[in-house]
């Protein structure tokens, strides 16, 4: 039952990975007539990589399209990307992704994906991002069903350990399946097995020992085995090997797979202190959607990679509920005790902050300019004294979303090495996203890269074996 | 904290607490907002009072879209199974609201046994009555006199409606319901008539019997059952009016209103319940109140039996088989009505109440 087709069968296309990009490639190739096998390292219940945690697709459009309102031009989209990446992008590939996204949305609908209007609390994205009905797992389910209907063979718990390459050509993969190493031969391969954030040792090597205290927001199955195997064999890399995208999340989240519910939106209305009871950054620098990403790094730089966001009762209803209930206390002393913070230092911090607050109009939904005076660091918006009990605190830790290191591809998704390109190796999704997203993140863009390059890789691979 | 590895088997007392735990996770995610009314309703609050849980539980139509889309289902440590959690809370609420309470509890614990006992006793009773020469009328009344039939069925009609009314009042109190306006009723009846909350949010259907693929089969089977039942009910009502007001006692001809309504309704009810029972065997029992799976199934089969014996009765009219079929049919109808406040049939009333309450809250 574990055999992958008849012995010695050579598949037209072997797809390594089982997330959005992998399935887009598998479906596209199968529709072009290729015999496709998908090797997903996760068990069926956890299939889909990080795609199962996603919720939307950032899409260019020249007029209202499906659930998307108004228009979102190529140039505006590209400028949004430039802003978050600070220019660390391949303009050619980035514009290819952006331009192609518009035709992807109807393609996704044709292949079972359903969209819904923006979720409550995300109206700011209704023009740029199309939300999946039921979220990313529903999208993943739809693609698996479509692939199955097309005759694609899917294997779960199929852990690819090695990509066999002879000179310039892919020949086979070695896959651990039910405790046995199996050789699966194919005429072409699409590598779409994500980044390496699931491998904590690798993260610690790259980032430093502090990374052992990071939480991983997504799948534990992205261990970068195939990525490392390819790099060891001389494939060209892109992206900063030491960096990962980390946001500040609830510190009580599970080590892996906590996903969306672990996010905390309270920072702009709070003061954030480290375990020494000291503030370390302007909590009110900008609206949270534009700042949550930098807070991952900020917290990572604190002792033990932990911090505490403290609010009072005035602010409790200003943000979305968290999955974990906050610590609650009637006095700041009591709160310091619960959080195990040095009491005097913490009280001094709050006192200094409160003294720096001034009267003015508070507007939770816009930059209100309500800033502190003579407080270091200043809080430049939404600065209100922490003085109305009960007091609440949430623990913050860095939560890793993805890593930047990947395989270099061209506009046909083909992977290259120092002497040129492989004849029959393509890559799609997180494993090559570093080409386009060299720094930062743009909501819904990972799914766009995966969809666009998954389809390209599937088409190119099918044409190659055709 | 209790370690409960199988939330679908939560004990009734834990049902609200477990639903609350799960809803707090959902409320921080909200990916499922597009499926049904439950998720938008959930976002109205950060903390859930018992009445909020009861409302959401009764609003849930068990379409299961949220389960198959959820990234936190077992083996994930968040262990979400919203269809089961709300199903258990819903079931527990019906047991709690039932009047008289003791009977609600008894039925909740021993539904199938109670149902079987009532049917058997009723059949015996009718046979007993039949053996006395009380007939003398035409059609069915040759076997059971109209007055005997009426003296059995009036209480069997009136009592359940009274019991349901008490239950609904308790429900309305717990969920904080306000006085009902026409606009609320219009919205609620429209939602019930179309089973909007079973259509997956976009008409693609629910995830009942085909796991992560959508299907409208259950919605259509339920529509056939619901409209079939209503047509049968209308047939009885029309016949009653004809009997008492127009002085036109049964039997009625094929083209009479009671027969047209009754036959159409009977066929719909028969097909609908047969399909619902079949679908229930295909669906994953752990995504609902699995403890009462048997009771729910027995109720569907009872409804099937009601419609099937009714149809058979129509076709054997004029033969001696009526003598055998009539008690079976009447006993099943009697049992059905008598157990309405305690069986799955109660869901229709509480669901409608939840839709009315939701129409109020959505304002």
From TrEMBL, chain A:
SUPFAM superfamilies: FAD/NAD(P)-binding domain (SSF51905), Succinate dehydrogenase/fumarate reductase flavoprotein, catalytic domain (SSF56425). InterPro entries: CobZ (IPR012831), FAD-dep_OxRdtase_2_FAD-bd (IPR003953), FAD-oxidoreductase_2 (IPR050315), FAD/NAD-bd_sf (IPR036188), Succ_DH/fumarate_Rdtase_cat_sf (IPR027477). This is FAD-dependent tricarballylate dehydrogenase TcuA. One of its GO terms (molecular function) is oxidoreductase activity. Its cofactor is FAD. Keywords: FAD, Flavoprotein, Oxidoreductase. The keyword Transmembrane does not apply. Residues 12-436 form the FAD-dependent oxidoreductase 2 FAD-binding domain.
Automatic annotation (TrEMBL), chain B:
Keywords: Membrane, Transmembrane, Transmembrane helix. The keyword Transferase does not apply. InterPro entries: Citrate_utilization_prot_B, NarG-like_sf. Signal peptide: none annotated. The keyword Transmembrane applies. It comes from the Bacteria. The chain crosses the membrane at residues 111-129, 149-168, 224-245, 257-278, 299-318, 324-342. NCBIfam families: CitB. This is Tricarballylate utilization 4Fe-4S protein TcuB. The lineage of its organism: Bacteria, Pseudomonadati, Pseudomonadota, Alphaproteobacteria, Rhodospirillales.
